[in-house]
Amino acid sequence: MSNIANYTNTYDIRGHEIEITAPARFDDQTHKVIPDLELDDQAAKLALEKFRKIYGVVSSEKMKNLRKKWNLSQRKFAKVLGWSPSTVALYETGAIPNVSNNRLLKILIKDDKVMKEFIEDSQKNEM
């Protein structure tokens, strides 16, 4: 038998220790944490969210919203940014962008004029 209770754990994200408290499954006899994919995934997502807030990392939702705002597929968006399509897909599914890519995303989210210039430049390069 097992039960669910709050558990405080520390995650190492890009060399930064992120401590969170989240529900975890415990063995009733040993009182030790036991694997539970759903609860463990939720805890990891909370740690990533906390990391994003602390270090100002663009969320996957904000990135998707930027892409959709400009009516770009992942492939076109990647071309506009000079990234690989797999990088865009990874970031949109929750991977943490590297520092320079995060800075670029923040600028493009904040400034429509810059985003428009990036799109126009990528279209010129297609010709």
Automatic annotation (TrEMBL):
This is Phage-like transcriptional regulator protein. Signal peptide: none annotated. Residues 63-107 form the HTH cro/C1-type domain. Pfam families: HTH_3. It comes from the Bacteria. GO terms for molecular function: DNA binding. InterPro entries: Cro/C1-type_HTH (IPR001387), Lambda_DNA-bd_dom_sf (IPR010982), MqsA (IPR022452). It comes from Lactobacillus gallinarum DSM 10532 = JCM 2011.
